[in-house]
């Protein structure tokens, strides 16, 4: 996963009013913390940060004037529920070679056996991976799976260097048969019987 450089500035204004002013200037309030260090309050460039966070578990290089570059992962992202703009970002400091626990998207590939329907029970899988080598996704194949088949977390082939954090027996997907449809003739017969019963009651 490529590193993304964000040029940050130290934030000296706090409170709702300050946050609104920052966002009006197309910037995002943020805080950088981790490894026992004091939290650093920052502003990040709005457009670049929005683009960067479209990628899950984006590895960010936070560049601050007068300080060494620091690597970080997005820990919590607050978005406006209606307009979708970034309201605040929490960043977690990481180091090269350090292993972190992340939720990685699952990508389902292939087609089950004829008549099978894929029930996706999970959309993400918890993995432990090196901070600088977090997989963009994990693939789970449903190719040729028959009705009744199940895939658990322990069945998933993980990318090199990644370890499973979820319990191995967590259900990822199952294959079921299509729901039985009531025959039209049978349904018509039922309606006819119901009508006859209603007429008898009326008598």
Automatic annotation (TrEMBL):
GO biological process: translation
Molecular-function annotations in GO: 5S rRNA binding; structural constituent of ribosome
Bias (Acidic residues) ranges: 180-203
InterPro entries per UniProt: Rbsml_bL25/Gln-tRNA_synth_N (IPR020056), Ribosomal_bL25/Gln-tRNA_synth (IPR011035), Ribosomal_bL25_b-dom (IPR020057), Ribosomal_bL25_C (IPR037121), Ribosomal_bL25_long (IPR001021), Ribosomal_L25_dom (IPR029751), Ribosomal_uL5_bac-type (IPR020930)
Organism in which the protein naturally occurs: Propionibacterium ruminifibrarum
Pfam families (alphabetical): Ribosomal_L25p (PF01386), Ribosomal_TL5_C (PF14693)
Stated family: Belongs to the bacterial ribosomal protein bL25 family. CTC subfamily.
Stretches assigned to the Large ribosomal subunit protein bL25 beta domain: 99-178
Region (Disordered): 175-203
Presence of keyword rRNA-binding: yes
GO (cellular component) term, any one: cytosolic large ribosomal subunit
Residue stretches making up the Large ribosomal subunit protein bL25 L25 domain: 6-91
The protein's name: Large ribosomal subunit protein bL25
């Amino acid at each position: 996963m490529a590193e993304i450089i964000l040029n940050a500035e130290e934030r000296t204004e706090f409170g709702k009013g300050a946050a609104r002013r920052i966002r009006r200037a197309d910037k995002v309030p943020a805080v950088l913390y981790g490894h026992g260090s004091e939290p650093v309050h920052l502003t990040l460039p709005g457009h670049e940060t929005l683009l960067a966070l479209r990628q899950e578990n984006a590895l960010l290089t936070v560049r601050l004037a007068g300080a060494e570059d620091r690597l970080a992962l997005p820990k919590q992202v607050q978005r406006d529920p209606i307009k979708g703009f970034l309201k605040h970002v929490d960043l977690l400091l990481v180091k090269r070679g350090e292993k972190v626990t992340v939720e990685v998207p699952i990508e389902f590939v292939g087609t089950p056996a004829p008549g099978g329907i894929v029930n996706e029970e999970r959309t993400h899988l918890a993995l432990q991976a090196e901070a600088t080598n977090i997989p963009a996704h994990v693939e789970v194949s449903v190719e040729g799976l028959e009705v009744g088949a199940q895939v658990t977390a322990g069945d998933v082939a993980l990318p090199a260097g990644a370890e499973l954090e979820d319990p191995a027996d967590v259900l990822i997907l199952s294959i079921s048969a299509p729901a039985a449809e009531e025959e039209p003739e049978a349904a018509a017969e039922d309606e006819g019987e119901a009508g006859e019963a209603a007429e008898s009651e009326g008598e």
